[in-house]
Structure formats: structure tokens, C-alpha cells
Amino acid sequence: MELKNSMKIVLNDILKGKRKVALGGHVRPDGDCVGSCMGLYLYLKEQYPDISADVYLETVPEAYRIINGTDEVKTEALDGEPYDLFICLDCGDPERLGFSRPLFEAAKETLCIDHHVSNDAFADENYIVPDASSTSELVFTLLDTDKISRASAEALYMGIAHDTGVFQYSCTSPETMETAAALMRKGIDASKIIEKTYYEKTYIQNQILGRALLESMLIMDKKCIISVIRKKSMDFFHAAPADLEGIVSQLRMTKGVEVAIFLHELAPQKFKVSLRSKGLVDVSEIAKYYGGGGHVRAAGVTMEGSSHDVINNITARIVHQLKHEEEQEQEL
Ligand SMILES: [Mn+2]
Fold it and tell me: How many domains does the chain have?
């Protein structure tokens, strides 16, 4: 794995002398965010009894609550004595910490563990490896394998499984599989974790997925697939934003498509845009251009305007990149 912004850190050194440690992940926590936070949180509680650790996350989605300790997650930041250390996980920029950002700002020391290519190393100490499959895999590399408990292993395994699309995406390296193997040896029920936290969908989630697929359109000479879910559809199905997870990945699987674009209307003239690429287009560049972030093949951004404006702006960047690609090919 290539290190982008930082050398590997030593957890013991960073924790030396710390009494109060906070952990925090990004808004709308996904599997890797919850997995990396809970995996490290459980390890700290078990291996560093002198440290008082708290984990801050927005409401943990129902499916992930099979992970131990998720009932201890703090969903609001109360005023109090500043933390000695704030560890920010799976978070590409401080804004994405959401409600826990003030705690991060106030902490005496900060550490960021992340794998987003758009991360510009905003903490005091940074362990950022864009090539890593997941933040959960990075957390694993910082821990003493012998000391990882089954509960912590379950959390980390969930995170890795989610960010690799169950060991399918190209970010899945031999090291990823070795990490998964080491976690399996802790006696976890790997198939149950995958089934319950990744594949299982509620009836509502399947219905809204169906709606998104039915109304999708191929554009740009079928290189691109787009779909929009409006607020009124969300209300009709009684769906929450978390129910939309997985839709853009399903769109991306369409044969012949290079990029999938999924718009979710947050408010009038305001959309959460999810982007997935098969590899030719760097969607993190597009997301970053409009103020978002992510990975080469998976990124997101919030944009304002009509759905047509948003789609036009995004596709303009895709055309720009594909053109550049063609020009480079001609030069070769
Ligand atoms: Mn991640």
C-alpha cells in the first residue's frame, strides 16, 4: 500500500498519556465508518482500561446494530472538558464530521485515519492511505492482531466487506483478503455479517430501488446512467435517506455504462449526488470540483439547482475527462 500523506503511526505512542479519547466518523455513517469506529472503540476499551473513550456518530443504521457497542454511541456533542485526543475515522474533511466537529476543533490533539483520496491531511497526525480498501483495514494494521477480540473483529470485518462491495471492487488487495482471513480466525460469523448488514433489504428499500431502476435513463451515447429520486417519492414510500444506499451501485452494474449518477432530492433545488465509475472516469475529481469528495470509483457531492442543471454540470465534467482520455490515447 502506498502512503500518500503520512507514515504509518504507532497507536501506543499516540495514546501515551491520554486519559480522554473521542472517536468520530462522517455524517450519514456507512458500513466502513461504523465498522472502523466501533472496531477501534472496542479495542481501546478492552486494551486500554485507563483511557475513557467515547464514540460519536449520527444514528447508526438499524442493520449495523448487530455490532457490539453501537448502543453506546453518542449522537450529540455536549459541552465539557476537551478531549486529550480526537480520532477522526473514514472522514475526508473536517466538515464531514458534522455535529462532532466542535469536539474535534477543541481537542488537544487530533488524529485522522482515512483512505479517501480527497483527504488533505487536516489533523495533527494523519494516517491516510488512498489505496487501502477501507478505513477498517487501516485500523486493523494499527492493532496487535493477537489482542483483537471477536467483537472488534466483527466490526472491522463489516467495514471491509462494505467498502469492497463484499471483496469485489478493485480496491480489494491480497492484503485485504489476508486481513479478512485474520478477522475470520477470531471466530466471527462472516456470512451472517455480510447477509444482515449488506445484502438484506427492507421491503421499502427494495421498492425504492425498483423505482430508481425503472425511471433510470441512459445518456451520453449510453456511457452514463442517471436516476433521480424526488422528495415526493421518498414520502410516498415512507423512505429515509439511508434506504437509498446501494441504488447507485446497482445502476453502475448496467452493461456498457462507464458512470452512474444518482440524485436524491434533499430539498427543493438541492440534491445529494452519488457517483460511481467503472474506472475510466475519476469521479472523485468531479465531486471535488463541485465541493464534494470521495474515491476514484465512488464519490459524492451536494449540489444546488434543478436536476437538469446538476446533471448537465456533472456530465460536462465527464465529457471533459473522457475527451482528455481520448487525446492521450491518440498521442500514444
Ligand atoms: Mn470508507
Answer: 2
